[in-house]
Amino acid sequence: MIEAKTLDFLKELVDNNNREWFQANKGRYDKARENMVEFAASVIEKLHKIDPTVSADLDPKKCVMRIYRDIRFSKNKTPYKNNFGISLPTLGSKLGGVEYYLQIQPGKSFIAGGYWMPEAAHLKAIRQEIDYNAADLKKIIDNKKFVKLFGDFRKQDQLKTTPKGYDADNENIDLLKLKSFIVAHQLKDKEVMAASAAQDIVDICSKLYPLNVFLKNAIA
């Protein structure tokens, strides 16, 4: 489970996002990160049983993302993220490919999955898979339990124009115009701090697993 001290550290970081405060509280950060690594290890162990493409050998230390922000090209010059992210890639995927992603942030935690902003070749392959096998995707995303957990899959970033190679009157144009193929479920603080948190999150992942399978098959 995520410890209350981890959330407390993140809450205080929001109001003290500077190097001086961070260095003075480095010990708290180290303990918070250790908590995240232990939690990631628990999630990986359980998730592998549901989705074998999430390797049981994933290094949880590498799955917990850096808290340091890259501010070189950002107007926001605060040096630290106000959350911890855990990226759980599927076999053959780089970070940011077809994956599960857990974000821990006070009041804004969530578990997500799918493929965010695919590279050009993968985007083309996914659209082709949708064009050929839209019924398979719609069976997943229009399932009532899926919609209740993750909302309307179609309501995410879309092209304003019709993608090259497809007609505007294509019956699945709303899916073909998508630029990302992700879903997310919000988590309350009490949920991530529960003793059953790792298993509860994996249970949610099991509901989005078919989406990841569809996407993996498309780019295989």
Second CATH tier, the architecture: 2-Layer Sandwich
Tally the beta strands. 4
- Using the alpha-carbon principal axes, give the shape: globular
**Can you tell me the CATH topology?**
BirA Bifunctional Protein, domain 2
Question: What would you report as the Rg, rounded to the nearest angstrom?
Answer: 19 Å
Structural class: alpha+beta
Strand numbers in spatial order across the main sheet:
1-2-3-4
Helix/strand order: HHHHEEEHHHEHH
InterPro entries: CHP02453, UCP028451
Protein name: DUF2461 domain-containing protein
Organism: Mucilaginibacter lutimaris
Task: Give your account of this protein's structure.
The chain has 220 residues and is an alpha+beta fold. The chain has one domain (4-219): BirA Bifunctional Protein, domain 2. Helix content is 49%, strand content 12%. The protein contains nine helices and four strands; from the N terminus they run H-H-H-H-E-E-E-H-H-H-E-H-H. The protein has helices spanning 4-15, 19-24, 26-50, 60-63, 120-141, 144-150, 173-176, 189-192, 197-219, and strands at residues 84-89, 99-104, 109-115, 181-187. A four-stranded antiparallel beta sheet has the order 1-2-3-4. A hairpin with a 4-residue loop joins strand 2 and strand 3. The longest helix is centred in the first third of the chain and has 25 residues, at 26-50. The two termini are 35 Å apart. InterPro entries: CHP02453 (IPR012808), UCP028451 (IPR015996). It holds the Pfam family DUF2461.
Task: List strands and helices in order, with pairings.
Layout: H1 4-15, H2 19-24, H3 26-50, H4 60-63, E1 84-89, E2 99-104, E3 109-115, H5 120-141, H6 144-150, H7 173-176, E4 181-187, H8 189-192, H9 197-219
Antiparallel strand pairs: 1-2, 2-3, 3-4
Organism: Mucilaginibacter lutimaris
Pfam families: DUF2461
Protein name: DUF2461 domain-containing protein
